[in-house]
Design goal:
This protein has 528 residues and is an alpha/beta fold. It has ten helices and 23 strands.
Length: 528
């Protein structure tokens, strides 16, 4: 192996073991996007850029990042790929030089000598390519055969890297082209573009808003590779971006810092379920009979699944301790079905109606009534009806079936009023604002006329004002007070309508038309 090749592999080995000296870890963010296609005000558009800038400012304040085994592996694979591309370009150049010798060299002896020299260079490059490919295969295979669901403990801990901001400015956000943005942060083209900008971690976010309240979901991806390192969802008011950013930064910081590993011990009940249960951590399946697992400190999602039992899922921020006991009592599934009839007044004006229960499509609705069979699961069921109105707008309605109403052969009914809830809430909110504006405009006039009327009364008693003036101000005061009362009543009515509309998003509770059968053997097994 050449000295150059040995140096490259030595550097990569040091990188994987964390022996390399600490470098800066560049964190950037993209402008967040609204998932709803509605017209946005200037303040809402500004919030999409302000929130990520505030998060960057709070996260990068003296923090460090501990690279995970997966992240180090992605860096190593990226370096190997970069080296392969460079070697291939060298190979192409040397082959072209060899082929050109036939035309440029007249002396047969010199031609043979120069061709031999070029062949030696070509073989050396091909050997380096083969070694590169072999090293790539070895590293990929080592990742596939590593213990499931766990970031491996390093022989020596990797050096922490100082978190710095993209362009050293929290207000400068990364802006990829439209095509790359559509491809997504995990696509190969997007990842290459981010690496060229020397970004190691990138924040992307989505915003869903209703009125002044918004749900902000933020993902952090690491590069090279574009792997998802963590996600956070926060709810707040768009008028207080600072609070939203502070909550997001506090939840994201452990994911970005990637603290030292912790050990999870699992206690699954009942015992018969524990023998066959599958444990899935962050989407990675552990081996059968897993009793414990090592994970990096921070937030993780754990799912426990077993045949004939309901799966359990928990998301928790494992920190401030090196050991955790995860107690998982599984509930036995219930079998059977029940029927539910949807009553949808005015359904003839809708098209493309679909009936869902627990996220599964049960059937298509073409009239004002539809009966479908639903599988009993022993847990609360949320059903949904989705359709399009005459204007092509999506309307929907929800219903709710609690556990105690899920009985074998029962017949339930739900009367639904499909609507575009977001549009209706926004309309009622606007009318409530108009009522409030009318009241605020009427009150100053009422106070003014009342004050002038009171002054006129005082003046009349002092003999400075005549009775006609007093009467005029009395009429004006009565009129202004009447307008204020009407405006106040209008505001209260619109406020009540707004609150009623906002509360109407709650699902309708299904009613029992015909009770079902409850077999004695159907019980929820809460554990041994």
């Amino acid at each position: 192996m050449s000295c150059r090749r040995f140096a490259v592999l030595g550097a990569m080995f040091a990188l994987l073991l964390g022996a390399a000296s600490a470098d800066d870890w560049t964190l950037g963010a993209m402008e967040f996007v609204y998932t709803q296609t509605v017209q946005r005000s200037s303040s809402e558009r500004a919030a999409a850029a302000t929130i990520p800038a505030l998060v960057l400012e709070k996260v990068a304040s003296g923090a460090t990042h501990m690279p995970s085994a997966s992240e180090l592996l992605q860096r190593s694979l990226y370096n190997l790929q970069t080296e392969r591309l460079s070697l291939f370009l060298q190979l192409a150049r040397e082959v072209k030089v060899r082929d050109s010798l036939v035309l440029s060299e007249r002396n047969p002896r010199e031609l043979k000598k120069k061709i031999a020299e070029q062949e030696k260079k070509i073989r050396d490059i091909e050997r380096q390519l083969d070694e590169n490919l072999a090293e790539t295969r070895r590293q990929r295979e080592s990742r596939e055969t590593a213990p499931s669901a766990v970031s491996a403990r390093f022989a020596s801990e990797p050096a922490a890297e100082k978190i710095v901001l993209y362009k050293d400015d929290a207000t400068v956000l990364y802006a990829p082209g439209a095509a790359l943005a559509d491809a997504g942060p995990e696509s190969a083209g997007f990842a290459d573009a981010v690496v060229r900008e020397h970004i190691n971690g990138l924040l992307t976010g989505q915003i869903v808003s209703y009125g002044n309240y918004a749900r902000v979901s933020v993902d952090v991806h690491t590069y090279p590779g574009g792997e998802l390192a963590g996600s956070v969802t926060e709810v707040g008011t768009l008028g207080d971006c600072m609070e939203i950013a502070a909550n997001i930064a506090a939840a994201l910081l452990p994911k970005i810092m990637n603290a030292v590993p912790v050990r999870l011990f699992f206690e699954i009940l009942p015992a018969v379920a524990a023998e066959n249960a599958e444990i899935i951590i962050d989407g990675v399946l552990c081996g059968p009979g897993t009793k414990f697992a090592d994970i990096t400190a921070g937030e993780h999602t754990i799912e426990v699944a077993c045949d004939d039992y309901f799966s359990k899922r928990i998301t928790y921020n494992f920190k401030e301790s090196s050991n955790f006991l995860v107690h998982v009592p599984l509930e036995k599934k219930r079998n059977g079905t029940f029927d539910i009839t949807l009553e949808i007044p005015g359904a003839e004006r809708l098209s493309g109606g679909s009936h869902y229960a627990d996220g599964e499509l049960l059937g298509y609705v073409s009239g004002s009534r539809r009966t479908d069979t639903v599988q009993i699961n022993g847990r609360s069921i949320i059903g949904q009806f989705i359709a399009q109105d005459a204007d092509g707008k999506t309307v929907d309605a929800f219903y709710y079936v609690p556990e105690d109403k899920q009985q074998q052969d029962a017949v339930l009914a739900a009367r639904l009023q499909p609507r575009d809830t977001a549009r209706d809430i926004n309309t009622r909110r606007l009318w409530a604002y108009r009522g409030y504006t009318a009241l605020m405009m009427a009150l100053p006039l009422a106070f003014f006329t009342y004050g002038r009327y009171d002054s006129a009364i005082t003046g009349y008693r002092a003999g400075a004002v005549d009775a006609a003036t007093v009467n005029n101000w009395a009429y004006a005061e009565n009129a202004a007070v009447g307008v204020s009362v009407l405006a106040g009543g209008f505001f209260l009515v619109e406020l009540a309508r707004y609150l009623y509309t906002a509360g109407s998003v709650l699902p309708q509770n299904a009613t029992v038309v015909q009770p079902g059968i409850v077999p004695d053997e159907i019980k929820l097994d809460a554990g041994d």
